[in-house]
Amino acid sequence: AARVAKEALAASQEQLARKQRQLKDLEDKLELLKQRFQAKKEEMARTEEKIRLTQTRFARASSLITALGDEESRWTSTLADLQGRGKWLLGDSLLSAACVSYFGAFTAPYRRELIAEW
Questions:
Q1: Which residues make Cβ contacts (< 8 Å) with residue 106, sequence separation at least 6?
Q2: Can you tell me the distance from the alpha carbon of 56 to that of 48, in angstroms, rounded to the nearest whole number?
Q3: pLDDT of 118 strictly over 80
Q4: What does the alpha-carbon distance between residue 90 and residue 65 come to, in Å, rounded to a whole number?
Q5: 3-state DSSP assignment of residue 88
Q6: CA distance readout (Å), 53 to 17, 67, 80, 93
Q7: 27-38 tens-digit pLDDT
């Protein structure tokens, strides 16, 4: 009876050792899966941050494009105005040169009076 009990004990211990190895293997796999899960969570957080940053940049770029569109119309009108003034540039230059030549002989207060009357 003792021998049968020893054999049963040995079989039980062998089965226990097998189950402990299986448990160890499962715990190792679980730890590996936890590490992978944590890495994927971190990657997801980085990706979400990149998405948020890209959306912010896109909104700013859209705003800039709109503002530049407004600037284009302003520059176009300024260009048209300057082209119109270009017609008068020669006459304005001659008139300015004549004023400088004529007013140069007078005192500063009298020149101011002449300019104010024009």
A1: 114
A2: 12
A3: no
A4: 38
A5: coil
A6: 54, 21, 40, 55
A7: 999 999 999 999
